[in-house]
């Protein structure tokens, strides 16, 4: 059986399990279950702390895992990203009391609280800045007020935790993170099917299927609006001079595309969600 790690709780847990379900895998029934076998698909899922997942995968104990890109890099495990999964997006920033810092270069000599000390040390080293990291487990934003640090480096999603603590980010993000599929670095891949299924979920979420009828002579103009992923399907209609076009369109663009298609003469424009696919 393929052995796959999934976050057991936290920001990535529900989205990771939802994605696996959409990909056709059976997932655990209750949030306390730590091991679940999907006999049909030959996969055993292990529900682990997201921070530990790259360590299990990097050591070769598990074949693959879903974790955050930031946690993968922080772990320094011998694991590699195979696929960005399009959920759990966050950015990793330096932050300080509003107005206290304007650039990372001002961190020289500062104490920086973080639960990602390796990420921060690597960034400071890259910039040639000598500063101290103070490793904390969570609730990092309150550490400046409590006097153990001058600045922090932490995950920012909406920014509301920072604002509530009277802090603001400074400088560019150290990292843009999201949920990622990982495997052991350099391993001969056993996870082709898992990867393809997860890729397909992303396509099914991102695209819709659009059908429309149009006069044959207008097809080039309509196709330029809807080029599809590879090539649109164009089929003859009973009425001479008209064709039906079927094509994939990005879901977030679809209303705009429909208006423009109508404008060039397309009619009976229908949109269908994609339940599942293999591209
Ligand atoms: N709003 C968010 N807060 C925290 N992490 C987020 C958020 N959005 C996405 N993430 C991602 O989730 C992962 C952290 O997950 P999680 O919060 O479960 O870990 P943790 O903070 O170490 O654990 P916990 O808070 O449960 O003790 C990181 O990869 C992070 O980038
Ligand atoms: O930008 P926001 O949307 O406010 O989200 C970011 C916050 O959420 C996370 O904390 P979490 O809830 O995981 O608590 P923790 O600090 O105890 O890990 C993260 O460490 C930030 O504090
Ligand atoms: Mg957290």
TrEMBL record:
Catalysed reaction(s)? Answer: 1-(5-phospho-beta-D-ribosyl)-ATP + diphosphate = 5-phospho-alpha-D-ribose 1-diphosphate + ATP
Keyword Magnesium carried by entry: yes
EC number(s) from the headed UniProt entry: 2.4.2.17
Q: Which SUPFAM superfamilies match?
A: GlnB-like, Periplasmic binding protein-like II
The family annotation for this protein states:
Belongs to the ATP phosphoribosyltransferase family. Long subfamily.
Q: Which residues form the ATP phosphoribosyltransferase catalytic domain?
A: 49-198
Q: Tell me where the signal peptide lies.
A: none
According to its UniProt entry, this protein's organism is: Brevibacterium sediminis
Q: What is this protein called?
A: ATP phosphoribosyltransferase
Q: What is the lineage of its organism?
A: Bacteria, Bacillati, Actinomycetota, Actinomycetes, Micrococcales
């Amino acid at each position: 059986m393929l052995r796959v790690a999934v976050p057991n709780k936290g920001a990535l847990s529900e989205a990771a399990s939802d994605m696996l379900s959409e990909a056709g895998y059976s997932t655990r029934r209750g949030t306390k279950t730590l091991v679940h076998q999907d006999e049909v698909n030959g996969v055993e899922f292990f529900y682990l702390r997201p921070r530990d997942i790259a360590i299990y995968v990097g050591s070769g104990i598990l074949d693959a895992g879903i974790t955050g890109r930031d946690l993968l890099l922080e772990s320094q495990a011998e694991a590699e990203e195979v696929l960005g999964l399009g959920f759990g997006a966050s950015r990793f920033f330096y932050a300080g009391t509003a107005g206290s810092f304007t650039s990372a270069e001002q961190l020289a000599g500062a104490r920086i609280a973080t639960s990602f000390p390796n990420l921060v040390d690597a960034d400071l080293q890259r910039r040639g800045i000598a500063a101290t990291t103070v490793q904390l487990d969570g609730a990092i934003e309150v550490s400046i007020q409590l006097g153990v640090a001058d600045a922090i480096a932490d995950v920012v999603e909406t920014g509301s935790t920072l604002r509530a603590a009277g802090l603001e980010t400074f400088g560019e993000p150290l990292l843009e993170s999201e949920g990622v599929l990982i495997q052991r670095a350099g391993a001969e891949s056993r996870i082709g099917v898992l990867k393809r299924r997860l890729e397909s979920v992303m396509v099914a979420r991102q695209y819709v299927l659009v059908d429309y009828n149009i006069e044959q002579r207008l097809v080039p103009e309509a196709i330029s609006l809807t080029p599809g992923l590879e090539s649109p399907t164009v089929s003859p209609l009973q009425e001479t001079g008209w064709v039906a076009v079927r094509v994939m369109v990005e879901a977030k663009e679809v209303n705009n595309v429909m208006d423009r298609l109508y404008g060039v003469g397309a009619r009976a424009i229908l949109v269908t969600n994609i339940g599942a696919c293999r591209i």
